[in-house]
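User: Let's play a game. I give you a shape written as tokens, and you guess the letters that built it. Ready? Here's round one.
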């Protein structure tokens, strides 16, 4: 198999590449896949090797939205400067699909505030930890998110070493979606990883999503055969492992198949309701309990422990903003669900 094909190159990208080259009348253009993204440059893998690449001035000028700029997983058209050993990117080839930061809604059209996390994904592995972390509404929300991206989905029930039986969990999932593959595994005990391996095909692209601590990094490291992502043992106070990611965010597995994993992937967290959110942001919940007002919004009120913690540098502001964003999202979703129920009730009345 050619290097490009092992990277996921296919007829879809080839025909769009050929039309662009014909249009530009330039035979020095080559295709490559973005394997990592830095501030202003991209690492692009081509048939001739990996090249740090910049985007052309015209491309930057023409890009109104950040979603039009290259992202990990994109196929791009570039020209190599052999002398400088770097590439210049002229175009992002049409994406088959993508996952973006702005959650749940409107995944198919690019708009102003979307930021692409990864693109051209064939299958999403949803990693769910068994035990007290298992929450069926959260799984439903993840399924919705994947469905909107257009990729197919497989559920991995990880940490099956922590429960006596996996049957009831599998049944619960099949009761909300009966045509989905569900594999119980234990990444730690190295049990069931063959299920995942059997689903991974050469030239296809995979991502792993799921709540923090579900075991995504552990699974990816097992598949890669080396520590692509460093996992730490669970910290005593919050039972979460923490990881630092290496600079390559797209890798070809030893047995074929491509995995994309980048820090943005960790931001695709989905919550069932406010309680679920508070459990995951326990640090903020504990601080909020110390605010003077019970219904403190942590924006303008006096004696706000959250604001104080941010000012003192004890609480990361980005972490807090993410919490607020997710809280708003849950409210919106609940509103939508209520409206849907109202509509159904109304149409039932008409019958
Ligand atoms: N008991 C048990 N623990 C596991 C299993 N898989 C992973 N863990 C542990 O769970 C913790 C979190 O695992 P990670 O792989 O870092 O989880 P993650 O989903 O990548 O988490 P984030 O990086 O926060 O998104 C680590 O301490 C792992 O050792 C498993 O099958 N069984
Ligand atoms: Zn407050």
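Assistant: Ready! My guess for every position:
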């Amino acid at each position: 198999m050619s290097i490009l094909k092992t990277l996921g190159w296919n007829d879809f990208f080839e025909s769009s590449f050929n039309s662009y080259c014909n249009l530009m009348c330039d035979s020095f253009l080559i295709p490559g896949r973005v394997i990592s993204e830095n501030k202003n440059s991209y690492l692009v893998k081509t048939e001739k090797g990996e090249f740090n690449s910049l985007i052309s001035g015209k491309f930057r000028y023409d890009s109104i939205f950040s979603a039009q700029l290259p992202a990990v997983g994109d196929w791009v058209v570039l020209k190599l400067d052999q002398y400088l050993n770097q590439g210049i990117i002229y175009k992002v080839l049409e994406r088959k699909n993508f996952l973006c930061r702005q959650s749940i809604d409107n995944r198919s059209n690019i708009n102003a505030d979307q930021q692409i996390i990864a693109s051209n994904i064939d299958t999403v592995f949803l990693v769910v930890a068994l035990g007290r972390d298992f929450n069926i509404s959260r799984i439903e929300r993840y399924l919705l998110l994947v469905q909107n991206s257009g990729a197919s989905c497989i559920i991995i029930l990880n940490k099956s070493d922590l429960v006596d039986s996996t049957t009831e969990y599998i049944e619960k999932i099949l009761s909300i979606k009966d045509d989905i593959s569900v594999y119980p595994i234990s990444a730690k005990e190295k049990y069931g990883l063959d299920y995942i391996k059997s689903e991974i095909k050469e030239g296809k692209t995979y991502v792993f999503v799921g709540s923090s601590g579900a075991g995504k990094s552990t699974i990816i490291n097992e598949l890669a055969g080396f520590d692509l992502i460093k996992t730490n043992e669970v910290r005593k106070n919050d039972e979460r492992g923490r990881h630092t990611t290496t600079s390559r965010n797209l890798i070809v597995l030893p047995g074929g198949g491509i995995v994309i994993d980048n820090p943005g992937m960790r931001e695709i967290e989905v919550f069932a309701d406010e309680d679920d959110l508070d459990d995951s942001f326990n640090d903020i919940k504990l601080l909020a309990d110390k605010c003077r007002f019970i219904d403190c919004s942590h924006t303008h009120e006096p004696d706000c422990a959250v604001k104080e913690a941010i000012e003192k540098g004890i609480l990361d502001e980005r972490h807090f903003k993410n919490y607020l964003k997710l809280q708003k999202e849950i409210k919106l979703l609940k509103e939508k669900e209520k409206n849907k129920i109202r509509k159904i009730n109304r149409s039932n009345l008409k019958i």
